[in-house]
Design a protein that fits this description.
The complex is a heterotetramer, with two copies of chain A (368 residues) and two copies of chain B (414 residues). By secondary structure, chain A is α+β, with helices and mostly antiparallel strands. Chain A has three domains: 7-116, Acyl-CoA dehydrogenase/oxidase, N-terminal domain (Butyryl-Coa Dehydrogenase, subunit A, domain 1, Orthogonal Bundle); 121-213, Butyryl-CoA Dehydrogenase, subunit A, domain 2; 217-367, Butyryl-CoA Dehydrogenase, subunit A, domain 3, CATH 1.20.140. In chain A, 54% of the residues lie in helices and 15% in strands. In chain A, strands 1, 2, 3, 4, 5, 6 and 7 form a seven-stranded mixed β-sheet that branches. Chain A has a two-stranded antiparallel sheet with strand order 8-9. In chain A, helix 1 runs parallel beside helix 4, helix 5 (87-101) packs antiparallel against helix 7 (215-251) and helix 8 (263-291) packs antiparallel against helix 9. The longest helix of chain A is centred in the middle third of the chain and has 37 residues, at 215-251. Chain B is of the alpha+beta class. Chain B has twelve helices and ten strands. In chain B, the strands form three sheets. Chain B has a four-stranded mixed β-sheet with strand order 1-4-5-8. Chain B has a four-stranded antiparallel β-sheet with strand order 2-3-7-6, with no helix packed on it. In chain B, strands 9-10 form a two-stranded antiparallel sheet. Chain B starts with 6 loop residues before the first helix and ends in a 23-residue tail after the last helix. Classes of the chains: A alpha+beta (368), B alpha+beta (414). Chains in contact: A-B, A-C, A-D, B-C, B-D, C-D. At the B-C interface, helix 9, helix 10 and helix 12 of B face helix 7, strand 9, helix 8, helix 9 and helix 11 of C.
Chain lengths: 368, 414, 368, 414
């Protein structure tokens, strides 16, 4: 039984945590929040230099070949620090998609630039408020040209390449589109979490290159992988909220004693802890499934995601509550986590749909 | 059981309705930005003339004594007027605190001359008041305040010099007067060393700075006091009796604590009706229906409880701390509904652009604003304490801060 | 605005409370719990004598003609005292059904015996675990003879007459069946709340008399009326739980002070109070709708029921929790309320189905 | 990350599995009433021979020191054995408290002679032990106990005379020995006046009465002491140091606190699969799916957390109070799942007859039993306190009972 990160992985975590404490404190996050930049290019460059962007990309494709467990370790720290970068889009979705569905040539051609950070990738799925399904997809590709509109696309405004879900003659497919090329218009959209940019993409006869075979099952596999990685970000964010709330409650006195001594606060922090521990354990199982390409991945990923979304939602909203009025000021950092919790809760689709996927996967497993 | 007014109430309602119909624009069909409160500066500009009109017509100070310009009517009449006014664009926000809390405190503690001087202009909207109570280190523990009042000299009528900081002061930036509670004795026990004043907000040494909220806008202020001078004649209540005066003010606050704004059941019901899920309308989805039913039941519970409160008021009873239920339940519901509305819009739910998302982004702005509603005017925790202690009669929390000098009480670093 | 019971109704409440405190303390309830009797005949006889059974039955049909608001007042007290009688079956369902759907002759013939308590009535709808719907109903009537099986039927073992939901040539109908007559077999079934008896009824060519017209809408109307009345019982039960919990918490010391002073307990009691107040207010609105035959009845009844089921569930389970180990002994009365809460939550169908009814009714109202 | 045993663990697992396969009946296919624990007297009768077999084969006292008949292995081996044993009908319930709590306390505090005398028979199942701690007025406040121990005379080795009442004592009716904490000094502060003993449950003056639970059965007892005599040689720890000894026992309890029984996710998933709602299978209903997903996620969270705990144990670490999570989460889930299972059966849900309702009435019996699980072995509130204080390091509740004489502490009427 070895259901923990090993010593090397823990060392990586410590390094990453120290680095981010130093280079990505709240005032760095706030530069992006306040709209001074769409993301933090300095951080991005340094992530590349440390081999983080290519952590799960094999060395033969220009990655650092550490592995998915290491990527999970990094994701937790990125979530904890709220790093304002397109890590999730480019790595959890872009790089994973290429590794799952790319031809040898596509991997050779695209992965190295992801690892160096020169190319930022994103995934363009949503076409508005309707649930993203194969049936609802209206973007089409014919004769290698893409037409359609995608909104919102996380990091669509800053990415160089997009993987676009669209229909062609043979059904639903994944298509690689150069966002800096012809036939692409894009505009940023305002969201509740300005530290993570989102855009509307419009395609008019944009050249599109097919990635992999049957698009929908591939998409779901990619989403499962991203869900596990994002769950670590969410656990990291939730843990940061718990620590902030605890620290504040210990130092804040009311009626002559620390508010941390009142059961209303104590028990709320205990509940946060419980939710985070369950989410963390579920994320670990997801990491195991992801790193071993286990058949359990669909169930493990949905479980990790549901658990992490709920833990981060709870921790980020109750963190504000524990802080009281001060926690609701722009100046305190509580709202940064609250915003990110909402962003991560929606970026891969709603809790409702993931619960649906979980029950579907469990039904199939039990039926098998 | 019936829902009809008494003859007296009905007559008053007719009078109010006809005043409103003649003098105000109905919300339905009126300027949308004004109706929803989105146009804040427009609201502010419209406030003074509207308040003056109300006062002239006898709808300001409905429960205030006639000798100070009020109508001397029972609280139920105030409720009836508000019910009717709610259908119209009637900007009254800037006067709520002054008329609801400051002037009643003045009427309880000021001299006759002062009452005559200040009640009328406040009623007619000529002077705006604010309330300077909360402090950064205070929070729910209001009496833990540290803004100091020192006497300038030894005389019985020596002036007071104020130094310190207040926070969460609504309307400080456009107020003419304020009521202020300070600590005049740091060696007395916590609740014994406080002294209460009113003062001009134009006094030298007052600086008002807006506080930006987590949701973006700045609805509150910090107010800094540097050697602000207040004549002793503006003291309300005895020296060291400021806590008792504050309680008078707060009694009036509890009644004013409102219900959370939309989105509520109606809005999420509409959203569900208009949203297509992968297998049909959201309104047909059993999970969605389950949540909708819960919110409807809670919303109706509050509405029907309000009918009971009104009935009690109509019988001349004073509504008790039961009204804490209203904010406790509605603030939580506000946050839940907002989150759920975002979820129903799938990935698009994170977008705040009013032209892109449903109901002009109401669910998104609700998600951002709702944490504040669970805190302002009494946190969830304080409201539960109030219900437990004042309604159910359970024991107070163990208090270690009621004896000994205030100076010696432990404080934290936050 | 007069949304309160009037002085006479309050006086009736005080009388009823005093009577039940005296005649229906816990040891009387326990006689039925322990199986010494299926219900309390003494109480039943006295209810009849005081005119409670016929409270809402007009005097012309042998009732006391007080009205439905008065019946609501009584229901709250019956719920508070856990009176082990077939009041709900015979009055909220039986008598209401006759008043809603009965011909003049049927009312003349049946209502007086309900008011005197000589006849106990019940409603036989459920045919097992499947939701009771028109489609699911398999009991049939042809040539005035009923065949089929109904389980569970509250008070089916002790009732004299049943209103049975069954199909005939013209659709679903309500049928009056004499349970003491031919073609009826019945057996008690064990339930979680032995203070309220339930039975399985089997009909083989049992003579059946039609009641009213189209059965399903009539049934729903009857259920709406019963839901409001039962909501008052539930509010009464929940209120009793709150009072027990408060009383125990004030007198029980831990770590040198009453447990009522700990926020974990204080806030739980506050939450109980909040739920009960909302449920009470919703029940009042239901009472208004019931007593005025308002078009709002379907919405008001579902709202009152959902609210009351949840308040009683919460109060009865957290009452045990506040009592700690003692609350989980047979000797303490907490479990009597816990059992009754479960019984009342199911006897008119699940929360799920009432939520469904509520949303249906609201959709229709908004569409209209 | 992997789920494989270390070589040493794997070898032990193989040994355990082959012992079990040769000596016990697998649950799958075995006597159903024994397998589910429904046949309580059958279980009891089977306990002694089974414990003897385990001891002979080296699977009793796995973590106990070898000199007292144990195996001297690490806790992870105990977990591995239990994992394997869980697949078989292996009645060990009556020995859990003795081997898990009483004998470890004896080994920490008894004389060498006593350890040699009592450890072996307990391991071999020849003697059963119980724990006499809780009292009616004590509850969560264990140290508030009032059972008195008075010396019979002035000698240093004078006997002790015990009077009072214990409650919630599992197995008292068939136990041979018990460990007992008493108050020997009512004038000392609460935690200072306690003294700890072990005693024969056959001692004159002991009366055991079963307590009937709200759910029907009597799994616990009250134990009354009337002038029960205990020789001073059976005192464990110093006079007045009984609280310290109790904490040793309780350290062991926390590890033993279990998870709630079925119904859990699997059972309600099966029910949903088999239940036809008005518009199709319950498993297709979005509200049902929503609830099922929540329970699955919580159940897996506990299971995966257990993997982490096992990993820590496998590395030689001692599991901390984090395990409080397990009972807190699973007891609540137990109640929720039970209620929901009843609801899914509509009106029939109230019926308890196993031949009439789904899964032999498991949801109904769960609804009845679950309130007890939220209380026994630490209430929800105490568990949250433990997590808050011992895991997160938050301050203790304000304690007014730690100083002054126990005699003077306020007590209630309950």
């Amino acid at each position: 039984m070895n259901f923990e990160f090993d010593d090397d992985q823990r060392m990586l975590r410590d390094q990453a945590r120290r680095f981010l404490l130093d280079k990505c404190p709240a005032d760095v996050v706030r530069q992006t929040l306040e709209g001074e930049q769409p993301f933090d290019q300095d951080l991005w460059r340094q992530f590349a230099e440390m081999g983080w962007l290519g952590a799960a990309i094999p060395e033969e494709y220009g990655g650092s070949g550490m592995g998915h467990l290491e990527l999970c370790v990094l994701a937790e720290e990125l979530g904890r620090s709220l790093a304002p970068t397109p890590f999730a889009s480019s790595i959890y979705l872009g790089s994973e998609a290429l590794m799952v569905a790319g031809t040898e040539e596509q991997k050779q051609s695209y992965l190295p630039d992801i690892a160096t950070g020169e190319a930022i990738w994103c995934l363009a799925l949503s076409e508005g408020a309707r649930p993203a399904t194969a049936t609802n997809t209206t973007a089409t590709v014919s004769d290698g040209k893409l037409n359609g509109e995608k909104v919102p696309v996380a990091d669509g405004d800053i990415a160089h390449k997009a993987i676009v879900i669209a229909k062609d003659g043979s059904g639903t497919g994944l298509f690689i589109v150069d966002l800096t090329g012809t036939g692409v218009e894009r505009s940023a959209v305002e969201t509740l979490d300005p530290t993570r940019s989102q855009a509307k993409l419009s395609f008019t006869n944009a050249p599109a290159e097919r990635l992999g075979g049957d698009g929908w099952p591939l998409l779901e596999d990619i989403q499962d992988r991203a869900a596990v990685l994002l769950a670590f970000e969410q656990v990291g964010g939730a843990q940061a909220c718990l620590e902030m709330a605890k620290d504040y409650a210990m130092g804040r006195y009311a009626f002559g004693r620390p508010i941390a001594g009142y059961q209303a606060i104590k028990h709320r922090l205990a509940d946060m802890y419980v939710q985070i521990e369950l989410a963390r354990s579920n994320a670990y199982f997801g990491a195991w499934a992801l790193s071993t390409d286990a058949a359990e991945l669909p169930v493990a990923a949905a479980t990790a995601r549901i658990s992490a979304v709920e833990a981060f939602n709870y921790a980020s909203k109750e963190n504000i509550q524990v802080h009281g009025g001060m926690g609701f000021t722009w100046e305190f950092n509580c709202h940064l986590y609250y915003r990110r919790a909402r962003q991560t809760a929606l970026v891969l689709g709603s809790l409702r749909r993931w619960k649906d996927r979980l029950i579907n996967a469990l039904s199939q497993r039990n039926a098998a | 059981m019936d829902f009809t007014d008494t003859p007296e109430e009905a007559a008053f309602r007719v009078k109010a309705r006809s005043f409103l119909a003649e003098n105000a624009q109905p919300k339905a069909g009126g300027d949308r930005n004004l109706a929803t409160g989105a146009d804040k500066s427009g609201m502010l500009a419209a406030s003074r003339p509207w308040q003056a009109k109300k006062a002239a017509a006898g709808f300001a100070g409905i429960t205030m004594a006639k000798e100070y310009g009020g109508q001397g009517l029972s609280p139920i009449m105030e409720v009836i007027y508000r019910q009717e006014e709610a259908e119209f664009i009637a900007p009254r926000g800037v006067y709520e605190i002054g008329l609801g809390m400051c002037i009643p405190t003045m009427l309880a503690y000021a001299t006759e001359e002062q009452k005559q001087r200040y009640a009328g202009p406040a009623l007619r909207g000529e002077e705006i008041w604010c309330q300077l109570f909360s402090e950064p280190a205070g929070g729910s523990d209001l009496a833990g305040l540290r803004t100091r009042a020192d006497r300038d000299g030894d005389g019985d009528d020596a002036d007071w010099i104020i130094n310190g900081q207040k926070i969460w002061t609504s309307g400080a930036q456009f107020s003419d007067y304020g009521i202020l509670v300070t600590r005049s004795d740091f060696d007395a026990p916590k609740h014994k060393g406080l002294t209460f004043f009113f003062l001009s907000m134009k006094s030298p040494g007052i600086e008002v700075r807006p506080i930006r909220q987590a949701s973006g806008p700045a609805n509150f202020n910090e107010v800094y006091f540097t050697d602000v001078r207040i004549p002793d004649s503006q003291r309300l209540g005895a020296i060291g009796e400021g806590w008792k005066v504050s309680l008078t003010t707060l009694m009036n606050e509890r009644f004013a604590v409102g219900v959370a704004p939309p989105p509520d059941f109606e809005e999420v019901f509409d959203l569900a009706r208009e949203t297509e899920l992968e297998d049909g309308p959201a309104l047909d989805n059993a999970m969605v229906r389950d949540r909708l039913a819960d919110w409807y039941v809670r919303k109706q519970g509050l509405k029907n409880s309000h009918f009971r409160t009104m009935t009690a008021m109509s019988r001349g009873e004073t509504p008790g701390p039961e009204s804490s239920i209203n904010k406790l339940v509605s603030a939580t519901k506000y946050q839940e509904v907002s989150f759920f509305g975002m979820e129903l819009q799938e990935m698009l739910g994170i977008v705040t652009d009013p032209d892109t998302v449903a109901l002009d982004g109401l669910f998104q702005s609700g998600a951002l604003s709702s944490p504040g509603y669970r805190i302002a005017g009494g946190t969830d925790e304080i409201l539960r304490n109030i219900i437990a202690e004042r309604v159910l009669g359970l024991p107070q929390d163990v208090r270690l801060d009621k004896v000994g000098s205030f100076r010696d009480l432990p404080t934290g670093d936050k």
